[in-house]
Specification:
There is one protein chain. The chain is mainly alpha-helical and 125 residues long. It contains five helices and three strands.
Length: 125
């Protein structure tokens, strides 16, 4: 794993990463990555016909953010979820392979609606 000037892990300039590569970049075992996939719905690796996970660059960036929240800032899983939900759209860069104007998937829409509902509920209190 290499680090950039700020001391954070540098993400190589590739379109897709295998789980072992992401594990090395993030410095966490692959079973932790598989667990985080179940806890953070924003991590959506594509699958090959053989079932192998292929993480996009935005997935790797998100994994590094999750690691920072959990390991350095000592967030709980739920706290990290809420933090990412509040910051959705700013923390993850778009996938360069998705053409412009591609509609968001249902998970993104649901997360945004939950964020809006939470803002409304907080305003009512």
């Amino acid at each position: 794993m290499t680090a950039d000037r700020s001391g954070e892990a540098a993400v190589p300039d590739k379109f897709y990463f295998k789980i072992g590569e992401v594990s090395d970049i993030a410095g966490v075992p692959s079973y932790v990555l598989r667990f985080w996939e179940t806890e953070f719905k924003q991590i959506k690796p594509k699958r090959t016909e053989a079932g192998q996970r292929l993480y996009r660059r935005q997935d790797v960036v998100l994994i590094l953010k999750i690691k920072q929240l959990l390991y350095e800032k000592k967030f709980t899983i739920e706290g990290a979820r809420q933090h990412l939900r509040q910051r959705s759209g700013r923390a993850v860069e778009p996938d360069p392979l998705d053409p412009p104007g591609t509609p968001p998937d249902l998970t993104d829409i649901r997360d945004e609606l939950i964020r809006i509902r939470d803002m409304i509920d907080a305003h009512r209190r």
